[in-house]
Amino acid sequence: MDNDRQKIKPGNQSGKHKKGLSRRGFLKGAGLTTVGTVALQTGVLGNALPEESLADKSIGPDATLIKLNVNGRLRSLAVEPRTTLASALRVHLQLTGTKIVCDRGACSACTVWVDGKPVNSCMILAVEVVGQEISTIEGIGSEEDLHPVQQAFIDHDASQCGFCTPGMIMTATHFLQNHPKPNLEEVKVAMRGNFCRCGTHPNVFKAVLSASEKM
Predict the structure, then answer these.
(1) 4 versus 104: which is more confidently predicted?
(2) 160 and 124: one domain?
């Protein structure tokens, strides 16, 4: 096996690049939820800023002015390049419906849509989604006009502490838009990337099935 590895001699690394997953590639890959994994495989979620422009333009470490298209509205904000999309939404834009729980792409509580695909916003940098359409829980319904999935979560008591609920709803809504009449097993598979520490998964499944009948 050692003979198959690329050998690089010390002091002779000029012009050579290590093979493997880059940090940006890891962030983008880990940022996809269960439903959104297909987007990475098919190339749907490309960089908002082309690789060549990122390489040619040095940004940071200070805050950089960017514009994000959030819920159909163009918002200006100044963020450090290291700022995640989740932090940009919550801290800079005060869209606190998006929750940060594990902050490492494991629970999907921070799920939002980027160009219509669910992603873990804690694993994507805000500067990477410039020019793309971002949708948050605030964008799919309001207190006066709840989305059917939101109403179903209330009717079936599908939340306790509520931290995972926005991410659950964003994942479920996207799933039902593409699978209008799912069965229980399909719902379980679609929601498997969203974790509820309170253990309300059975009621979540009931809520998603109920919403499917009203959508």
Answers:
(1) 104
(2) no
Task: Name residues whose C-beta falls within 8 Å of residue 205's C-beta, 6 or more positions apart in sequence.
Answer: 184, 187, 188, 191
CATH code of the domain in which 118 resides = 3.10.20.30
For helices 201-214 and 165-178, give the axis angle rounded to 10 degrees: 40
Please report how the helices 165-178 and 148-155 are oriented relative to each other, as an axis angle in degrees rounded to 10. 130
- Is the pLDDT at 169 greater than 70? The verdict is yes
- For residue 101, give the nearest of 121, 83, 115, 124 by alpha carbon: 121
Query: Of 109, 138, 167, which one is at a domain's C-terminal end?
Result: 138
Q: What domain range is 208 assigned to?
A: 148-214
Q: How far apart are the C-alpha atoms of 94 and 26, rounded to whole Å?
A: 27
pLDDT value at residue 147: 96
* pTM of the model as a whole: 0.73
Determine the Cα–Cα distance for residues 190 and 176; give it in Å rounded to an integer.
Answer: 10
- List, for residues 95-148, the tens digit of each pLDDT value: 999 999 999 999 999 999 999 999 999 999 999 999 999 999 999 998 889 999
The helix (run of H) or strand (run of E) holding residue 148 is helix 148-155
Q: Note whether 119 and 31 are within 8 A (CB).
A: yes
